[in-house]
Each structure stands twice: as C-alpha cells, then as structure tokens.
Design brief:
about 120 residues, mainly alpha, transmembrane helix, transmembrane, membrane
Amino acid sequence: MITALVSAFLFVHGLIHLTVWLPHDSTEQPFNPRHSWALASAGLPQARVVSQAAIALASITAMLYVIAGAATAAQSSGWTAAAVLAASVGLVLKALWFNPWLSLGVLLDAGVIAAVATSWPGSLY
C-alpha cells in the first residue's frame, strides 16, 4: 500500500511539472512560466532560449520523477537516487523561475529530499 502511494505521488508530482511549464493557450495562469526573475536580474533577455530552458528543466524533472515512481513500483533501490535528482532539478527550476504560486512545489521537492535522507517510509528500504 505504501509503495503504491509513494509511486503514485512521484508520478503525479512529476507530470504536474509538464502541465505547468509546457506552453498552452490558456492565459489564465497565475504566473508566467516563461519569465525568470533570476535570469532577468542577471541581465539576460527573456528570449526564447530562457523559455526553452524552463521547458527543458521541467521535462527533465518530470522524466526523473516518473523514473523514480517506476523504480518505486518495481521495488528497486534506485528510486532514491532518481527521486533526489528529480527533486534537486525541480528546486533549481523553481528557484530560477520562482513565483509564490510555486511554493507548494518547493515544499514537495524539499520533502522528497528529506524523506530519502531520513529513509522514510522505512518499508521502501
């Protein structure tokens, strides 16, 4: 039961990155995922390259979370490395393109790292 819940969480959290960061027609987003406050502060123009970097980081994060979820479902010990990598890339993404709407995602990524660091839940180890 715990394995299935953790695996589902990792899958869903990863796939949510794609729904937030991939381009869509809706203009009702609470923030602009194409604008990086950090890169703008560094003097980099908010060009297509910045948008592509956001999409690339979100895609990598999603892929790593899906791998972590699949490894968890398969009860492979490699899930921990994939989960920590996914959370780390996700934190970099959210730091460079931060908006208060992403706070829950930051907490979830930090929680994944904390869970792996403390070997929680124990039944997965």
